[in-house]
């Protein structure tokens, strides 16, 4: 497999916090779009509210549902989540229905495109290097079905042999079925694959449940000294392990 001699067939990656991050804090982007639709909202309050609402909202999963229906349900899921964010931040009563719906549509489109996200500088070079080594690459993320549009907008679509998301697999990390789908799509076994992500609960636990080696990407050095975790601080560090 090219220059790869580490006994691996495939490397899987998380998306948000691993390959991409918001181009600006979510609260800043929500406030900017809200302002364009007539509502002045504090970005710090919105950011805090979004984090709280997002953390308390279960993954959006509809097993066995056709893709078009999944997309419709995902849109409704996000409509409710965004509404809950503005409500928790104290702006729920400031909207007319039509103004909020227009704001939501703009936000929903924004985060499907490159305007809402930016690539980490080490992302594209690392993916390209691993591809040159002959490894198959996969994306294993709890992002919704907009991920395919987002990857194309970021110029990453051609890097991946498989994209495993809840809308396709009917499961979300840390459920091992997401990783099983990626393994089957790459025609390999768990002992010949590794997953890289920034969440202990979703990425490390999920990958291990599926039998994969897990690598924690700890960009902000928050998990120093956590026992039993293979930890890196930049994707460039992968060159030392593969």
On the 0-100 scale, what is the average pLDDT? 93
Order of helices and strands: EEHHHHEHEHEHHEHEE
Determine the structural class based on helices, strands and strand pairing. Answer: alpha/beta
- Approximate strand percentage: 5-15%
Helix content: 40-55%
**CATH architecture field of the largest domain:** 3-Layer(aba) Sandwich
Distance between the termini: 12 Å
Distinct helical segment count? 9
Structure, explained:
The protein is α/β, with parallel strands linked by helices. It has two domains: 10-21 and 117-240, HAD superfamily/HAD-like (Rossmann fold, 3-Layer(aba) Sandwich); 24-110, Haloacid dehalogenase-like hydrolase (DNA polymerase, domain 1, Orthogonal Bundle), CATH 1.10.150. It has helices spanning 26-36, 43-56, 67-88, 97-110, 123-132, 147-154, 166-169, 176-185, 200-209, and strands at 10-13, 20-22, 117-119, 136-140, 162-164, 193-197, 213-217, 230-232. The strands form two sheets. The chain has a six-stranded parallel β-sheet. A two-stranded antiparallel ribbon has the order 2-3. The longest helix has 22 residues, at 67-88.
